[in-house]
Each structure stands twice: as structure tokens, then as C-alpha cells.
Amino acid sequence: MLWVDKYRPHTLDKVMVHQQEAQNLKNLIAQGDCPHLLFYGPSGAGKKTLIMALLREMYGAGAEKVKVENKLWKVEAGSRKIEVELTTISSNYHVELNPSDAGFQDRYVVQEIIKEMAKSKPLSVAGIKSFKVLVLNEVDKLSKEAQHSLRRTMEKYSAACRLVLCCNSASKVIEAVRSRCLNVRITAPAEDEIVKVLLHVAKKEGLQLSPAFAGRIAFHSNRNLRRAILSLEACKVHQYPFTDSQPVQTTDWEQYIVEVASDIMNEQSPKRLFLVRGKLYELLVNCIPPELILKRLLLELMKKLDSELKHEVCHWAAFYEHRMQLGQKAIFHLEAFVAKFMSIYKKFLIATFG
Amino acid sequence: MAPIQRTSQQWVEKYRPKQVKDVAYQDEVVRTLMNTLETGNLPHLLFYGPPGTGKTSTALAIAHQLYGPELYKTRVLELNASDDRGINVVRTKIKDFAAVAVGSGISGYPCPPFKIIILDEADSMTEDAQNALRRTMETFSKVTRFCFICNYISRIIEPLASRCAKFRFKPLVEDIMSQRISYICQEEGLHLDSEALSSLSRISEGDLRRAITCLQSSARLYGSSISSENIISVSGIIPHAVIQSLFEACKTGVFDQSQKEVTNIIAEGYPVSQVLSQLHDLIVVADDLSDDQKARICERLSEADKCLIDGADEYLQLMDVASNTMRTLCNMTQECTYY
Asked: Which residue of B lies nearest to A326 if distances are taken between CA atoms?
């Protein structure tokens, strides 16, 4: 079992970061009722952990007995019938799913599942809540229509089920949905909090971990707790006992992007562009999201730039990322960004050094 | 912390005004409609104004006062944007309902001889559907009155608007808002200090529904005594200090400084669309900026807002805004030099 899962806190009392939020959530459900909730915050901040702990608080240990199902939903949309296949994770008390997996048909999935849940409303026995909970992940990736149909469904079936929505950026969730939920912002843990957690994990595993090295892992994790724990585990596999100077393990796709960045900095020519394209393709076929590639690439390139160039490069990165969202093929826009960067950089070099 | 009684009922519903005269602050509207109630004569109505000013409440209150609870079901048809309101519905459901003759009224209520169709959020109806309504409105005007409710009157087609008596609902001023909120606090047994009260009135910007929802959320989270910080953390407003420090970082003209601030904002999980709108508020009133600078910054802010709606990445957009703001503030070259 990975340490990330092994040391995930299971109850609201045991969380090490976000103690305030956990306490608030506890107060919230203490009276037996709860509104719809919307958790938002950067990845690796602990949204999912809090949600699972909340469910456990509400329903007891039964909420953790989950089964994974691959279900086929048959939806009637007007005159035609649509079949959507979706993986759900469910216990007796809750259902969890990623509606955005259904692509452009997400609207039907959202409506159909909530309707089905509402049909089988659990009876209110002592201690058991009379509603089920539906956890929807990545609501920010839902299409606008799906979000609009969510707002109606939320009100209509609120007696039988509560929604817990989870997303990275609240900007992409429509105002109407946000205003119907209690919004809970989960901040990324600060570096010293990450250090605290890392030391805790190391102690439980019986490892010697110096605070200095833990601090370095925390620094490299960009305030992402999950990454910090994963890289601690990777470091342990790489070399144990730890030394303070040992390199912090990063994921291979990041190293790959560092490589791409140095390729671009070394030579700016159509030939090099062709080479870089091959590498970008390699990343894409390995299912690295294109937004992440572009962002990472920008950060790597910016490390080596003059500040006057940074403004410009930053502008173009935002420009091409926006186009990427509107367009279909990510590779065009990634490549366009690289080509643009090469042209800017080359002109800068000529202007500076002649 | 004293436990407070929680019911699943939303306070917004609980404290919805039951009678037209209870509707806060919309004096002209109330006066006209009270008159209507006495005479039992009602034109077609068109209510417009920003959200949370009492449009739907007024419409429902009128219908209730005219017919009373018994006749309400048969005499009033209420449709809002979440119901299907394509052209087919207009042709069948609305037309069928409009065509039915009315029976006799019951005593105790005015019960004028017509039915009311309330179309909430009418600005999201398609133009075709609105066009299909034109003739229906006139043909059945003897037995049916329409009440349109919308935020933007410009999205209602002219032929429909000209058939109605228009009422504008204005955003609530802070005094009235505070009165209403303190009343609810009293009823619910909440304690709100004056600072929290004024910040609640301020951030809700004339939208009473938003204020009440916000109050209920904070009561649920923090119990019966609520401070100004509680209100701000629930409402999703970003603390002023965060925006200020981003602005200060842009003033320094050091790129890395602003990059640090941006990374920080993203890690704290603040919604960037909110950052943009609060940054805008800050920039517009800033004294030490020239009009030209303000215009340049706002132009980029609006572009970024559009990009966010298209689904662009928050980090990159905010970086671009910050870098543009910095270039403007420090009078660096605007155009890309190596373009």
C-alpha cells in the first residue's frame, strides 16, 4: 500500500492540516442535516481526504466499505437513446463519480444518476441519515449545460440526496451552482505543515528523517502534500538511510520537460522544433495533460530568462493556452508556443549580442 | 457556542415576504400594486432589476393575495428557466393554460376573473419562444395576465415589453438591508456585531438573497455568534490584504515578486475570477494612477475574464494580468519588443 493511502487520516479528528475546516465541518453535520457542499482548492491540498472523513463522520465506518462498479446507463434523450458507460465508487450511503468522464454527454449522466438515487430514498432509522450523498469530482470540467441542469436537479431532489462537489478552480463553476452550495475553500498546506506530516509518516515507518531533508522535499513539492509523501517514498527506495544532500526524486515527465526546455534554449531552428515536437508527442501519448505540459515548460524556460523577456513569454503562454482550450488538437498550440518562444529568444539574442 | 435550531428550510424561503406591502424598499412598485389589489384590475407585468431585489417575491405575493391558497393552484402557472420553455411549451402548455376559462371566485379574496402566468427568468427564453407568445397574450387577455420577470430588460423582445407595464426594481441600500438582516438575526437568535452587519451589507451589493444565504451558511458553520471574518470567509470574498499585496508587488516592477504572489494566490485556492473583479475595484478607485494606465489595465482584465470563461488556465491568465499591470504601472514598453 502506498504511504499516501496508508496515512490518509480517516476521521475529522485526526487530520493534521486543515484542523479548523475539519472542526467546522463537524459542527455543521452535528445537528443531523447538511447543505450541499462545494470544496475547491489546488490539487494535493486534501479535499478528497476531508470529504471521505466527512462521510465517515456522518455514516460511521460503513461509508468506507466501497465497491467499484462499471455501470452502463441507458438514458433517453428526446427521441434517441444514449448509452453511457461510467465507473462509480459506491457504498451503502454514497456514490462517487467523475461525470466529466462521459464527455459531451455528461448532462444526461448527472440527471439520470441523481434521479435514480432519489428513487431509492433510504429510510430514516435512528442514527442513519435519511439522505444519500452524491460526490461529484471535477465539476469544473463539466460542460456548462450539465452545470445548468445540475442546478435544477439540486433543488428538486434535495430531500433525498445531498451533493458534495469537488473541483480545482471555483471560477469554472457557474455562479448559480456556487450560490446553492456552502463553499469550502481548501488551501494548499504550507511548507512547515508538510514537513510536520512528513516527519510524522517517517516516524510511523520507523525511518530516520532529518528536518532539513524533509524541508527540501516540501520545497520541491510546490505545497502539494500528496506529491511530498510520494516523493518521500520514492527517495526511500532510491537511497536509505537519507543523506541531506541526496537529490529529491521528481517524476520522470518533469525531468523530460526539463530536457525539452534545455533543448529549446540551446538551439532555435526549424530542425530543433521538429525534435521538440517529437518529444511533446511522447509526453502527450503518455497521457500528461497538455495544460500541465505548457505550464511546466513555461516555468522551466522562465528560470533562465531575463525579466524583460519573462513578461513577453508569459503573455504568449497565456495566449496559446487559451487557444488550446478552444481548439481540439493540443499539439498545434504547444508547438506554436515553442515556435513563438524560439523566435522571441532568437531575436533577443541577436539584438543583445549582435 | 450556543446550539441553534437548524431546519432544512432555507431562510431565503422562510423569510420571503408573504404580502406585497412587506416587500422592502421598492416603494413605487408596491404603491402601484396595492392599488391594483384594491380594484382587482391588473395589466400584464414586466419586472426587471438585479438579482435579489424582490422580483419573484412580489410576483408570488400578488398571486397569493389575489387568490388565496385554495384557488392558487388552478389560477397560477409558474415557470422558471429550469423548466423546459422551448417553443413547444409555449405552443402547448402555456397556450392551453391561457385558454381555459375561469370559474367563480371564493369570498375573502379579490379573485379577479383572470389567471396569472408567471414566467421567471424570462430573459433566458429564446427569441422564438418570446415571439410565439405575442399573439397568445392578446388573444387570451380577457382571461389571462402574464407576469415576466427578468434581470436584463434588453433581452426581452420589444413587442413583448410594449405590451406590459414595466417596473424597475432597484438594488437595496445598506440601511434597509441591515434592518432586514437584524430582523432575521433576532428571529433566529443570532448575534451579529455592527462590524459584521455592515460588512455583510457591503459585500452583498444590494442583493438581499445573497446576504441571507451568506448569513445562513455562516450560522451553520460558526454557530450563533458571527464575526466579520466569518462572514468574509463564507462569502468567498478575498481578504483585501491579498489583493493589496498583489498590487504592491506589481508596483515594484520586479517580475519574480509578482510571480511569487500569483503562485501564492493559486495555492491558497482563491477563485481567480474573483481576484480579477476585486483587483478591478481596487484599480478603478486608485488615486495615483492616470486614466490611461487604468484603461490599459482594465482592458487586459476583461480579456482575462473572457479567457477564464472559455476555460483557460487560472495561473497563466493571472500571471499575464499581473505582468501587464506591472508593465503599465512601471511605464515599461507595452508592445512586445521581440514580436
From this structure: B310
